[in-house]
Amino acid sequence: MAKILAVDDEEGILILIKKILNKDGHHVTLVSDETTVSALKLESFDLILLDVMMPKIDGFILCKEIRRRVDCPILFLTAKTEENSLVIGLGAGADDYISKPFGDLELRARVLAHLRREQRERCLKLTFERSYFNLSGKQLMVDERVVPLTKGEYQICEFLAQNAGQVFTREQVYEKTFGYDGESNDNTIATHIKNIRSKLEELNYFPIKTVWGIGYKWEG
Known about the structure:
Layout: E1 3-7, H1 11-22, E2 27-31, E3 47-51, H2 59-67, E4 74-78, H3 83-91, E5 96-99, H4 104-122, E6 125-127, E7 131-134, E8 139-142, E9 145-146, H5 151-162, H6 170-177, H7 187-201, E10 208-211, E11 215-218
Parallel strand pairs: 1-2, 1-3, 3-4, 4-5
Antiparallel strand pairs: 6-7, 7-8, 8-9, 10-11
Helix pairs in contact: 5-6, 5-7, 6-7
């Protein structure tokens, strides 16, 4: 079951959306004032439904702002069916659109399809607020920029990130990343961490925390 955010200035539309999606057990958060969206913890949502025509902030503009913070599916709710409008919407970062008026089955099917696709993609991604790991490509992305990590540096970051919030000693990090037969020793972990931090500092990103006297943890 997913956490879904629905943003629309029409209360009736919001109530309808919640009624329909509740049938599939989804938890739906309703927002009728689009100016309050930026204050929400957007990364907590699995999918966002966003109206295009709103009185205070244009839906396309709001979509761009949301997309800078999250990579979950964004579906526009729109009465605009002109080709140019749809191109603008998809270019703003939306994944799809649902035309108003929409039916019960159509809304549920579209939402379910995007949630399933997102679930498949996330199996190959480890996502945080500003960064994500492309697990298949062995890349760390920060603000959509590839961080130029060495193989060892990447392994350390991936291990810590996959166990975010947990503290590991240098010995544990060494064992989990290089193994008992690794050519390095645990003293090199500190050097690797220093190099990683130097590269991430250029992006003003500081996810690796030192727990003095113990070791390191990832807080992305």
